Amino acid sequence: MTIEALVTLKSENVPAVGRERLRLLEAVAREGSISAGARAIGITYKAAWDGLDAMANLFGQPLLIRRAGGRAGGGATLTPTGHSVIEAFRRMEAEMVRVLRTIEPELAEAGVSPLDLVSGFLMKTSARNAISGSIINIVSDALSAEVEIAVSPETTIYSVVTHASMEELGLCTGRSVTLLIKAPFVAIATGKAAPKTSARNCIRGTVSRCETSTVSAEIVLDIGAGKTLALSITAHSAKSLGLAPGKPAFALFDAAHVIIAIN
């Protein structure tokens, strides 16, 4: 059996970025728009947006520059970071092939498949949001710790973990982490002024997408620095709030609903 070497870029507990999403990025660059790139590789427009949002959140920088114009008239070009990600991925993939071809005969003689070396290493998560950031402050007592994470120059997110988890994960100021937040845990409020709320996190953003079905709606907020935050609400709520692209809004969620993952 011929084994193919594939590169997957990820952080622990964060949705992986592999060949398919890199193909999407290349297609968008080649076709000049997200909708055309999605058609070129045979996925839906929504799936393309989800993939691009995930990549921007994981790498922590915008990979695309988008031009206004809607699904038909808009366009997109790669940022320097986007080009660098593609180039680095292809170089790593070529190097992986070289290494695999070197060790495969030795492993075969020992009755070991290269797949055995990596099975179980990649973990998937059901959390819709995976956002990279850096710890800027920790306040702790004997039982718990509140961790403050900067995800952009303007935006910080708070997470509450147990004291034991803080020590086990080795959390400290300056450490890079990934935050996992399930979309149903996020509420939304509209308006230009921050609402009064008991939620520890109140993140300012702008609605970039609003996908509505008969019962539910998925809202994606642009929270700056190329990062997004998705949330799930009812279709009735989305309609009553008048949610539409370009509308200012706030994402509200408890610190206890923010999971911290490390590399």
From TrEMBL:
Single Gene Ontology BP term? molybdate ion transport
Family indicated by similarity: Belongs to the ModE family.
Task: Print the keywords alphabetically.
Answer: Molybdenum, Repeat, Transport
Q: Which NCBIfam families match?
A: Mop (TIGR00638)
What PANTHER family would the database entry show?
A: DNA-BINDING TRANSCRIPTIONAL DUAL REGULATOR MODE, TRANSCRIPTIONAL REGULATOR MODE
What Gene Ontology molecular-function terms does this entry list? DNA-binding transcription factor activity; molybdenum ion binding
Which organism is this entry from?
Nitrobacter hamburgensis (strain DSM 10229 / NCIMB 13809 / X14)
Can the keyword Transport be found in this entry's annotation? yes
Question: What name goes with this protein?
Answer: Transcriptional regulator, ModE family
Q: Give TM regions.
A: none
Annotated region Required for dimer formation and molybdate binding: the residues are 125-133
Pfam families named among the record's database cross-references: HTH_1, TOBE
Question: What residue stretches are annotated with the Mop domain?
Answer: 124-190, 196-262
Please give the coiled-coil regions recorded for this protein: none
InterPro entries in the record = LysR_HTH_N, Mo/tungstate-bd_C_term_dom, ModE, Molybdate_resp_trans_reg, Mop_domain, Transp-assoc_OB_typ1, WH-like_DNA-bd_sf, WH_DNA-bd_sf
